[in-house]
Amino acid sequence: MRIGLFATCLGDTLFPDAVKATAILLTRLGHDVVFPPGQTCCGQMHINTGYQREPVPLVRNFADGFGDASIEAVVMPSGSCAGSVRHQHRIVADRYGDAALRAGVDAVAAKTYELSELLVDVLGVTGVGAYFPHRVTYHPTCHSLRMLRVGDKPLRLLRAVEGIDLVELPGADSCCGFGGTFALKNAETSTAMLHDKTDSITATGAEVCTAGDSSCLMHIGGGLSRIRSGTRTLHLARILAATRTTPDVLTEASV
């Protein structure tokens, strides 16, 4: 399958290893991964903050860049960005776009997936040949859980990883408190939610907390580092890309 890879803003600027891991994993599984060079922000942060007219050029650029008929699927290591493409882009196109934009948005949305969705639902795999001999807990991010409804797909992938000690996260479906600009506008509430989440993660005794969104892991990782919990954050893609011959090297930074 020819798969278009969308890096996302955070992936491009702060967490490129998650993007690279996605490409490495899919290539290892025998797929042709392409990276449209003109890609930019998907516009999610504008839309979530109430600026729906301003991201029209971004939405159009996304539809044009990934609308190439030779690209059979679009993948991104982010449930929130996948949710924006699949749900919010049509809202923007309906309100401020034209017929061509609406058609382009619909065509690309129909083939856009978060990583675990692509692997399980489209490619039909759960065992991807990964090896990760560490104690891990999984945080289901809000957009992947509530907007995309990925369900247990990430957990099914993790359970198939050789060597992993996967432990259940108490209160897993509770928000970590990030929510993009929510964390800035409602800092006290966000911090309280983060405190609950880091307490739950610490209680598992996990070496690693993983998720499908770098943004949530950035927030959680900051909280874990401040309490010196010893638990590190790592994107799901990096765990799935790790093998016996090419292991992932855990670092102190949230990733």
From TrEMBL:
Gene Ontology molecular-function annotations: oxidoreductase activity
Gene Ontology cellular component annotations, sorted alphabetically: cytosol
InterPro entries: Cys_rich_dom
Pfam families documented for this protein: CCG
Cysteine-rich domain sequence ranges: 4-85, 136-220
Source superkingdom: Bacteria
Identification of the protein by name: (Fe-S)-binding protein
